[in-house]
Write a structure and sequence with these properties.
By secondary structure, the chain is an alpha/beta fold. It contains ten helices and 16 strands.
């Protein structure tokens, strides 16, 4: 059993914490942090793009903790900040994290750590060269039902097969706000940072990408992976009919599954639900933030927050994204003459939202046209 599957207790937090970001998730994180702090603590938020909305939200917080909101990210070392949480837009994760790490401040970065593997690796090396703690948000590894599920899995023989399903409706209410996805962030980059740490907590062999199937313009992707002898299927979908969070593991001893579509998650052993004893424990997000802040204070980062897990997510995303772009280009070509529908809108919105993706996909479409023309003309 991994040592980190033990419970995380409530420990002393650093006195000054800064959150970089002004969106829904920054507010969720800020609310959880605020509920744990005292009158001697300070919580600051830094956002350029959403300052007024963030200020109004912060004004509504009730409690003894000092809170302030800034429209700039200052020299954090001058504020004696003890820990930083980066929860802004994905393209800004690396630059914000580098500012905090350069100031010598332990930093937790929301998923994904970076937009690609090379940027993630560079950030990890930047932190290591300065001897500063870099942590990555893997909130589901702090859920007690996931801990219980992993304990049972570890007690059984090596898995033969794994299935992970992760689907989201177009919009849903989460933590009292409407949750929606960033259309510029492909499905793979958005969900694999959640999926990969969960997979690697069950299997010990490296994840090997074998292929994928794409539908709905890229809003649904099915990936085929291997980890040693274990065959892994991932089903990822946006704009789905329902929210679905489900993992099952098949071994020679049977099937264990966890369904965490709703909180708290439910565990099934050979189709029989078991008691998870979840009622009196902190939420996964609170447990994760406590673990990070404890590590920031003691200098020892919880292994569940290891950037190596995030680096593996970025590697797999980069590899799968090459095939994804090729299949998306082929799919779009087949839609020529088809009346615009939700699937076409999804693909076009993703491309329009990301200039880099648009350029890469345009090149792929032109290359496919070139190959088809050469084949038609006997070249």
């Amino acid at each position: 059993m991994p040592s980190w599957l033990n419970d995380i207790g409530e420990n002393t937090h650093p006195k000054k914490i800064s959150v970089v970001g002004g969106g829904r998730w920054a507010r969720v994180i800020g609310g959880v942090l605020h509920s744990s702090l005292t009158s001697s603590d300070t919580l600051s938020f830094h956002t350029r793009s959403n300052f007024e909305a963030m200020r109004l939200w912060a004004d509504g917080l009730r409690g003894p903790t000092q809170v302030f909101v800034s429209s700039v990210v200052p020299v954090l070392s001058s504020l004696n900040v003890g820990a930083v949480v980066v929860a802004n837009a994905t393209p800004l994760h690396v630059s914000a994290a580098r500012l905090a790490l350069a100031a010598g401040i332990p930093t937790l970065v929301e998923k994904p750590l970076a937009s690609n593997h090379s940027a993630a690796l560079e950030l990890i090396q930047f932190a290591e060269a300065r001897g500063v703690g870099l942590a990555c948000s893997h909130v589901f590894l702090f859920a007690r039902y996931i801990q219980r599920f992993l304990n049972i899995s570890a007690s059984r023989s090596s898995p033969e097969r794994m299935l992970l399903e992760w689907t989201d409706p177009q919009a849903e209410m989460r933590y009292g706000e409407v949750k929606s996805y960033d259309p510029s962030l492909p499905l793979l980059n958005d969900i694999l940072p959640h999926a990969v740490p969960l997979l690697l907590s069950v299997v010990r062999d490296p994840l090997v990408f074998f292929g994928l199937r794409l539908s709905k313009g890229g809003a649904r992707v099915e990936l085929d992976l291997m980890a040693g002898p274990t065959a892994i299927s991932l089903v990822l979908e946006r704009n789905a009919a329902i929210r679905r969070r489900y993992i099952d593991v098949t071994s020679s001893e049977g099937v264990i599954a966890v369904d965490f579509s709703d909180e708290p998650g439910r565990i099934f052993v050979d189709n029989s639900e078991i008691d998870c004893d979840l009622e009196s424990h902190a939420s996964p997000l609170k447990s994760m933030l406590n673990a990070f802040l404890d590590g920031a204070f003691t200098g020892s980062i919880d292994p569940r927050l290891s950037p190596s897990l995030a680096l593996e997510s970025c590697r797999l995303s980069d590899e799968a994204l090459k095939t994804y772009r090729e299949l998306q280009a082929q799919w779009l070509l087949k839609q020529v003459g088809v009346p615009v529908n939700d699937d076409i809108r999804y693909a076009l919105t993703e491309l329009i939202s990301s200039s880099q993706s648009r350029l890469k996909l345009t090149d792929k479409i032109l290359e496919i046209y070139r190959r088809e023309w050469m084949a038609e003309h006997g070249h």
